[in-house]
Amino acid sequence: MLFNYDTFIDAPHDTNFEGKPRHIGVEIEFGNLTAKESAEHVQKLFGGQIEESDKHRYLVKETSLGDFICELDSEFVHNTNNLNWIDTQDIKSKIQEVVGDISAMVVPCEVVCPPIELNDLPKLVDLLDTLHKSGAKGTAESPLFGFGFQLNPEIAKKEANYICAIIKAHLLLSDWLRATIKLDLTRQVTSFTNPFPKEYIRKVLAPDYWPDMNTLIDDYLRHNPTRNRELDMLPLFSWIDDTRVKNSVEDTRIKSRPTFHYRLPNANLGQKDWSLRKEWNRWCIVEQLAHDTDRLNAMSEAYLENNEKLIAENWAIKASEWLLIS
To answer: Which residues contact residue 65 at a Cβ distance below 8 angstroms, ignoring those fewer than 6 apart?
Structure first.
């Protein structure tokens, strides 16, 4: 399974569960630029009309790629319901604007890109380059920055075995991904995301674990009733069975959608060893492993055997061997 970081790797599936071209959503956090400035850069690249939602949230509508959201990543700044004890809307808005101005020193600005076809993903490289050249700061620029990056690739099949295979593949490659991504010190100190529980990993990687959809969702919710995972399955499972998820997890931030929610710890704009291309290619390696059932099962068996050893070998290194030479 040789891979090349110099080009965008093709995913094993280029169509979605409806037989249409697959889409992907991208979310990028950074500092040192305002939401308005970010929206202006989006407009210059992709056209569209800018609409002000509030002083720290701007929509760029009807661009060549779809509708973008550029905002300060703080729900308090955008939701006046937090200030219900104040009667006057103008005063509420002014307080939120001031709080937003202060928060912007440590709270990231975020650009939420619209779902775009996989073939259009390279177009976002121009956006990231433009933001960086305009002064946007990434995670590595300051110990105070804990900026993240998120990929939301659309599912190719609405089938339990397909989704289960992706989860298995990610569990097998999680140590390798963390090692190659080089988790930023800020993220290490503040805890990026909690790893999947060992009991859940052993259960899912068992050779005979290919459950139906209801069991797959129930097992996930039982062990992971939280958004705090690198591969957050709650948005997808909520889209498949919203009632089932709401019965286990009370979190209004869950957004139902037919995508895998892949959360990355670093958004290192301008750094030579970081790029959208690399992060996408790493995700594609997860998809490639999931698509290769024989390798997936054999690697799962090797993981479980290694886990039972008195002194286990470094799994990140073992995973690299499986990807390169097995």
So the answer is: 46, 113, 114, 116, 120, 123
